């Protein structure tokens, strides 16, 4: 493909991504995979170049653009090599018309950018949200140890005990160590969030929003498969993926519990007042993970954010009812908005006078009121808010 044809292909795929963002449709990576399936003539270098153009254009636009051509013209303002490719050549984009506009830049839609600034995320901290995320691994201590594990690429040792960082794009899924469960892909910040739980062998630990087990598996490793680990979620398809992952990792999950939204405590009745620790990895806006899915900032609305905040408050109340006296709730969101982090915890504490916050001692992060916050700029991790709450 010619460079101009690559730009036109990126525009066509980006149009589909913009429509999906408006209509809450498929994520960008799925749309790109389908786009490449329909363009079998595109070689590996073409696909890589097109993918890079698409994501660069997404990151270049703050508010959602009217169309992909405007988005690509916005990218051309930042990359002078792109504008000459709007030359009207065969399979390339049409020439730029007089008065044709480029999309607006920025970090996010105006209301969301302001909400981040009000939460202390602006300037370099905000710009870093749209960078490229590294590839981090967690060595599974149920099967291996970082100090003795041999991998095709050694990787950089992270500050966490079993963390490694590899070059972006490393195909670890093809490695034997991945296939037999000795390593898992997991961001350094996510691994730190698991450390905050302080799970110990012999404890009763509940992963309330387990999903496919991204944090359940490191909890099992921390417990050395001794104790009772319960994984629950309202999403059947995600929870079903936990079983095969746990088997590969050699992790023992005492029980997986499918929850009925709004009636979660009915399914968890036997665990009320008995847990040593409950992890609430709460559904959230995901502002801390924009490096991995930058188009997600176009999907979030103020109404959706309000729904997340309401759900998070309810999940905290559920978690509080599951721990035994003196037990702990670890509240985590991959959001950098105070509404989903520091504010949420303060509201919980004011409504539950017997509870206190004990900010966890973690290897990275800075205090954010009653918790700890990790950011891409300051910590080179995904963005997280982490709080540790203790019951009476």
- CATH homology group of the largest domain: Vaccinia Virus protein VP39
H/E topology pattern: HHHHHHEEEHEHEHEHHEHEHEHEEEHE
Question: By helix and strand content, what is the structural category?
Answer: alpha/beta
Helix content: 25-40%
Biggest sheet architecture? 9 strands, mixed
Integer tally of domains: 3
CATH class of the largest domain: Alpha Beta
> What is the straight-line distance between the termini?
66 Å
- The count of helical stretches stands at 15
Label the overall shape.
globular
Mean pLDDT: 96
Give the C-alpha Rg. Answer: 22 Å
Low-confidence stretches: none
In short:
By secondary structure, the protein is an alpha/beta fold.
Structural account:
There is one protein chain. The protein is an alpha/beta fold. It folds into three domains: 3-106; 135-185, Alpha-Beta Plaits (2-Layer Sandwich), CATH 3.30.70; 197-390, 3-Layer(aba) Sandwich (Rossmann fold). It has helices spanning 3-23, 28-37, 44-60, 68-78, 110-118, 124-127, 176-179, 188-197, 216-222, 236-240, 242-249, 264-267, 302-322, 342-351, 376-379; strands at residues 135-139, 156-157, 163-166, 183-185, 204-207, 228-233, 255-258, 275-281, 323-333, 356-357, 366-368, 371-374, 384-390. β5, α9 (216-222) and β6 (228-233) form a beta-alpha-beta unit. α1 packs across α3 (44-60). The chain starts with a helix and ends with a strand. The model has no long low-confidence stretch (mean pLDDT 96).
């Amino acid at each position: 493909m010619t460079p101009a044809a690559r730009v036109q292909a990126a525009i066509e795929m980006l149009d589909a991504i913009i429509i999906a963002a408006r209509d809450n449709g498929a994520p960008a990576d799925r749309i790109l995979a389908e786009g490449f399936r329909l363009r079998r003539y595109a070689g590996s270098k073409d696909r890589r170049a097109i993918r890079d153009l698409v994501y660069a254009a997404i990151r270049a636009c703050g508010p959602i653009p009217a169309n992909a051509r405007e988005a690509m013209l916005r990218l051309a303002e930042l990359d002078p090599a792109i504008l000459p490719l709007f030359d009207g050549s065969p399979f390339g984009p049409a020439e730029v018309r007089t008065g044709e506009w480029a999309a607006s830049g920025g970090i996010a839609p105006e209301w969301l950018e302001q909400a981040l600034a009000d939460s202390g995320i602006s300037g370099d901290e905000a710009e870093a949200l749209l960078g490229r995320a590294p590839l981090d691994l967690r060595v599974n201590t149920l099967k291996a140890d970082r100090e003795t594990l041999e991998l095709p690429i050694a990787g950089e040792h992270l500050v966490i005990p079993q963390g490694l960082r590899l070059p972006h794009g490393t195909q670890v899924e093809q490695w034997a160590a991945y296939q037999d469960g000795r390593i898992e892909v997991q961001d350094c910040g996510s691994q730190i969030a698991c450390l905050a739980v302080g799970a110990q062998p012999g404890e009763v630990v509940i992963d309330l929003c387990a999903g496919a087990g991204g944090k359940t598996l490191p909890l099992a490793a921390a417990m050395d498969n001794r104790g009772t680990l319960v994984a629950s979620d309202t999403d059947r398809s995600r929870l079903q993926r936990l079983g095969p992952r746990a088997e590969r990792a050699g992790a023992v999950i005492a029980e997986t519990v499918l929850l009925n939204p709004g009636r979660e405590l009915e399914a968890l009745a036997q665990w009320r007042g008995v847990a040593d620790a409950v992890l609430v990895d709460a559904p959230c806006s995901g502002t801390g993970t924009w490096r991995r899915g930058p188009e997600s900032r176009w999907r979030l609305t103020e109404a959706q954010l309000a729904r997340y905040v309401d759900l998070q408050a309810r999940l905290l109340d559920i978690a509080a009812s599951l721990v035994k006296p003196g037990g702990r709730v670890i509240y985590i969101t991959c959001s950098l908005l105070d509404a989903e982090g520091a504010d949420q915890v303060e509201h919980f504490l004011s409504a539950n006078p017997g509870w206190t916050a004990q900010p966890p001692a973690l290897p990275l992060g800075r205090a954010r009121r009653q918790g700890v916050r990790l950011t891409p700029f300051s910590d080179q991790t995904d963005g997280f808010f982490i709080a540790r709450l203790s019951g009476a």
